[in-house]
Amino acid sequence: MQTSTVRPHRSEEVFPREEHLAWRIAEVAADPVPVDDDVAEMVVNRVIDNAAVAAASVRRAPVVAARGQAEAHPAAPGATVFGIPGRFSPEWAAWANGTAVRELDFHDTFLAAEYSHPGDNIPPVLAVAQHAGADGAALLRGIVTGYEVQIDLARAISLHAHKIDHVAHLGPSAAAGIGALLGLPVETIYQAIGQALHTTTATRQSRKGEISTWKASAPAFAGKAAIEAVDRAMRGQTSPAPIWEGEDGVIAQLLDGPDARYEVPLPGPGEPKRAILASFTKEHSAEYQAQAWIDLARRLRAEHPEILEPGAVRRIVLHTSHHTHFVIGSGANDPQKYDPTASRETLDHSIPYIVAVALQDGVWDHAASYAPERAARPDTVALWRSITTAEDPEWTRRYHSTDPAEQAFGGRAEIDLADGRTITAEIAVADAHPLGARPFARADYVAKFRTLAAGVVEPEEIERFLAVAQRLPELAPDELAGLTFTATGLPAAPKGLF
């Protein structure tokens, strides 16, 4: 990897375009380096993973609405939309599919200086590949590039520290991925990256307080914006520059200010793009920082059944990282995280709620665990409101560690019982993590798709999709349309403007 030093520049400074971060990313995207076999295998896993969580969400209201918007924009050649036949304008197909993938917060994650869901790159890159008549090998290069860029940005540049939503890394990465897919020149990709970043910087209010349906749509919007940015750049149009480093650019005005300095790692010329292997998927439909806690709660329930007795628990403190405490824990100071009438989007960002339900049920279900009647159970509310979080510097340090063997996203639970005893237990990573008790492999991704698609997608369609997806690197252009599925029992979309 090569490190690019990134800092703001005054307008009068000499700052060659070739030193702009957007240009360096564009060079990475344009580098036609072969894709390693293990990276290609992981891309297949994540395409299956995306389809699995999309199948589980395809009847939910935000997804139905987004699909309706796409249906209003048929196109030829066009791109496919999860759940329905036909071809649609690629930016709208990416919007609908991106919303479906993100709705349940159930696909892959990467956490470092910033957090991300790099699987959000797949819907826009795939939509453009289908529309442009690309083959599986080109699609593979595009997806690998999108993952690489988003993860490398997340390694170096924190957005949430300045209350900027993490999709500001996704717009540029999706534009880079599309550029790699299409084999565009560096100049064109550079312009697309600039516009994609410029149009996808927004505040974190979409993930704060009473979280709305926009949470699922924000990444889909970034993917749609990236497609439009590429289209504009291909027509010879230019974008704000230097977008990160300008005197009024993103870093100086939205992030660490005019004296900021970041060290962004990027592959050098001819170096393979392998960042996807640093990301990890979810076994449970909840914020990634909740994954390990769900697994620990299930273990505690089995080992200490006495904690399920009415009134047995006096209080529970979850000692964890800064991010977990302040984003999904009691440190967020969001009363909604303890509200039984809160939205699903809010509950999946409430670690006190998630731990309470996982302790009581011993399982986690993407629908039943968030049902209003489940959240309103009096015994659940009582246990839920006895749970708080606390930042532990050591868990914060491990959260930010660059050593995969040390990096951790869990913490230590202290359960004070009414009889005076205290139960303590800790967990570093989720069971499904590469270093966890049961690391996810191809069979687990396939099983996840079959499980989540059951009752939504016909059995023959499930197997057809899996057969096509597992041949992704060798697919011919006319076969890329098979990387979708049709579903049954879909509700009609509400009427809007289109």
UniProtKB/TrEMBL annotation:
Keywords for this protein: Lyase
Catalytic activity: (2S,3S)-2-methylcitrate = 2-methyl-cis-aconitate + H2O
Keyword Zinc annotated: no
Domain MmgE/PrpD N-terminal: 19-262
Similarity comment: Belongs to the PrpD family.
Pfam families: MmgE_PrpD_C (PF19305), MmgE_PrpD_N (PF03972)
A molecular function GO annotation: 2-methylcitrate dehydratase activity
InterPro entries: MmgE/PrpD_sf, MmgE/PrpD_sf_1, MmgE/PrpD_sf_2, MmgE_PrpD, MmgE_PrpD_C, MmgE_PrpD_N
Record protein name field: 2-methylcitrate dehydratase
Subunit note: Monomer.
EC numbers on record: 4.2.1.79
Domain MmgE/PrpD C-terminal intervals: 284-472
